[in-house]
Amino acid sequence: MHIFLANPRGFCAGVNMAIKTLETAIIRFGLPLYVYHEIVHNTWIVDDFKLRGVKFVSMLDEVPEGSRLMFSAHGVAPNIRERAKQKNIETIDATCPLVARVHREVLRYAADDYTIILIGHSGHDEVIGTMNEAPESIILVEHESDIHALKFAQDEKLVVLTQTTLSVTETKSMIELLQKKFPNIIGKSNANICYATQHRQDAIATLAALVDVVLIVGSENSSNSKRLAERGEALGVRSILIDGVDNIDVGWFNGSERVLISAGASAPEYVVQDCVRMLQKIFNATVEERQTCSDSLSFQLPID
Ligand code: SF4
C-alpha cells in the first residue's frame, strides 16, 4: 500500500485559535469554565476538554450567573451575547474571524435594505448565529430547489452570502443559478467559503485521481469534513469519513494499493498519524506527503 497524505489537511487558523484560546483560559482562569456549543466540531477535541473539566452547554440556562463562558469558533447569535450580559456572565469570544466577518456583512447589508440569501445548512451552529443577526432580512437556501421557489419584486435589492464550510462546486453552481434567476443579485462567486475549506477541497480534487480509496479524518457533525468525503465521491473514488483509527475496516482496502488521507479543519493531526501507523503496520504502507498549496494563516487569540 502507498499512502498519499494531503497537504493542507487538518486544523485551520480558526480552529487553532479557538483551541489555544480555551487552553489559555483553563490556565489563566481555572474551572469552572463553560463553552457554548462544541468549541470545534470534533469528538476528540471536545472529549479531551471535558476530561479537563470544561463544561459544554447548548443553552444559557445551564450557565450560572456570574460564571465564565466561551463562545465557540462557529460564532453565536446576538441574543445569546445579550442574555449572557444580563446574567452577568464573563464571556470570551473564540468566534473565527472569518465567521465574524460574515456576521458583519449581514448587518451591513440588512442596514442597507438588502434581502440576504444565505446558502447554508439549516440547524448548523454557524448558520443559526449568522441568521440571527438580522432574521427579518435573511432567507436560507440549502438546495437548488429552494432557489427555484424564490420570488422577489424586480427592484428588490439582493445579495448572496454563505456559510464558510460548504462544497465549493455546489455553492458555485447555486450562485450561478441565483445570478441567472436574479441578474441584479450581488455577491462573490464563492461568497464566504473560507480559505481552509477551499484549500482542503482543492487538495482532494487534485489528488483523488491518484488513489483507489480516500479516507477523511473528521467527525460526523463537521461540515467541512463531510464536504471533503463528498468531493472524493463526486470524483468517482470511494471516500470514507472516519472519526478515528477504530473506524477503519481493513476490508475496505482489498485490492486498494493507493490511499489518500486528508482531515477536516477540526480534526487533530495525532488522529491522522494513528491511522497512518495502523495502515503501515497491517499493509506495510509507504507514506508520501503531497502539498497542493500553502495554508499558513494564523489568528490572534482573543485573550493573552
Ligand atoms: S473552517 Fe474556515 S471559517 Fe471555520 S474556523 Fe476554520 S478558518 Fe474559520
What structural keywords apply?
304 residues; alpha/beta; Cobalt-precorrin-4 Transmethylase, domain 1; Rossmann fold; 3 domains; 5-stranded parallel beta sheet; 18% strand; binds iron/sulfur cluster
Give every kind of bound small molecule, once each.
iron/sulfur cluster
Please state the structural category: alpha/beta
Q: Nearest-angstrom radius of gyration?
A: 21 Å
* Count of individual helical segments: 10
The amount of beta strand, in percent, is 15-25%
Count of folded domains: 3
Overall pLDDT level: 96
General description of the model:
This protein has 304 residues and is α/β, with parallel strands linked by helices. The protein folds into three domains: 2-11 and 195-291, 4-hydroxy-3-methylbut-2-enyl diphosphate reductase, catalytic domain (Cobalt-precorrin-4 Transmethylase, domain 1, 3-Layer(aba) Sandwich), CATH 3.40.1010; 13-95, Rossmann fold, CATH 3.40.50.11270; 98-181, Cobalt-precorrin-4 Transmethylase, domain 1. The chain is 38% helix and 18% strand. It has a five-stranded parallel beta sheet with strand order 10-9-11-1-12, sandwiched between helices. A four-stranded parallel beta sheet has the order 3-2-4-5, with helices on both faces. A three-stranded parallel beta sheet has the order 7-6-8, with helices on both faces. The protein is flat and about 60 Å long.
Fold topology:
Blueprint: E1 2-7, H1 13-29, E2 34-36, H2 43-51, E3 55-57, E4 68-71, H3 78-86, E5 90-93, H4 97-111, E6 115-119, H5 125-131, E7 138-141, H6 144-148, E8 158-162, H7 168-181, H8 195-207, E9 213-217, H9 223-234, E10 238-242, E11 258-263, H10 269-283, E12 286-291
Parallel strand pairs: 1-11, 1-12, 2-3, 2-4, 4-5, 6-7, 6-8, 9-10, 9-11
Helix pairs in contact: 4-5, 8-9
The protein binds iron/sulfur cluster.
